[in-house]
Amino acid sequence: MEEAKKSVGKVALVTGSGSGIGRATAIAFAREGANVVLASSSEKNNRETARMIEEVGGQALVVACNVASAEDVRLALNKTVETFGRLDFAFNNAGSEQTPAATADITEEEWDRIVNVSLRGVFLCMKYEIPLLLKQGGGAIVNVSSGAGVRGIKGVAAYVAAKHGVIGLTKSAALDYATSNIRINVVCPGIIDTPMMGRFTGGTPEGRLDAIAQEPIGRVGSPEEIASAVIWLCSDAPSFMIGHAMVIDGGQTI
Fold first, then answer.
1. Number of domains the chain contains
2. How far apart are CA 45 and CA 245, in angstroms?
């Protein structure tokens, strides 16, 4: 495949790689010829992703990583460089959904949990990825927000706040490194057919139909559709695009 040759020898780090969008994107990077670092807190799921990458002829490094821990993030990136010698792309995808509750009923512990993973985690990843990209002479980072990052949603204020924060963080970081050949953008998925969606809908046919009803396109999205956007954002094609929040939600937030 002609396009795949462009990523041969490149190295991509994917957080939250054990399932859903992270898994699909890790496999997509491998199909493009990149070596992939799988950073996840779930060793079992991460090893399954590695097996799937090997099936398509790719090479994967599995590392345990809680993105809310600076030490875990540093160790994951150290192992990346020790194994592959470089970092070219990063997809900061790890996140967590909130237990639904009205704002005043959100516990401080729940607030901290959501913000630590979904916002602090993105910050920590960029903090330690960017110096490697600077040393390499450039690269691309894609962060994950959500349709919840561009609107309010009743009952999940902590999640919405964290995802809004990811967009602001991305825009500022993109400006900080705009002249350093590092492009930083963010994707905002709508309702995607992942294990997280299953938990959100209760895993019932009725819950799934309710989710589909929220999408003007008449269906939920697939992880592969988000993965294709991430691969494009990491390619040379959008070389003039920085700090962009790409909403991919079937028209839900129009």
1. 1
2. 29
Q: Splitting the chain (254 residues) into consecutive groups of 10 residues, what average pLDDT does each group show?
A: 61 97 98 97 95 96 97 98 98 94 98 98 98 96 97 97 98 98 98 77 78 88 97 98 97 91
| Residue 233 domain-assigned (yes or no) | yes
Q: What is the CATH number of the domain that holds 54?
A: 3.40.50.720
Given the residues 23, 159, 197, 246, the one annotated as active site = 159
**Cβ(56)–Cβ(30) below 8 Å:** yes
8, amino acid identity: V
Contact 36, 10 (CB under 8 A): no
The neighbour count for residue 240, using CB atoms within 10 Å, is 7
Does residue 215 sit within a domain?
Answer: no
Active-site residue 159, yes or no? yes
Model pTM score: 0.94
The CA distance from 86 to 98, in Å, is: 35
Q: State which residues form the domain around 140.
A: 3-190+226-248
Q: Residue 236 domain-assigned?
A: yes
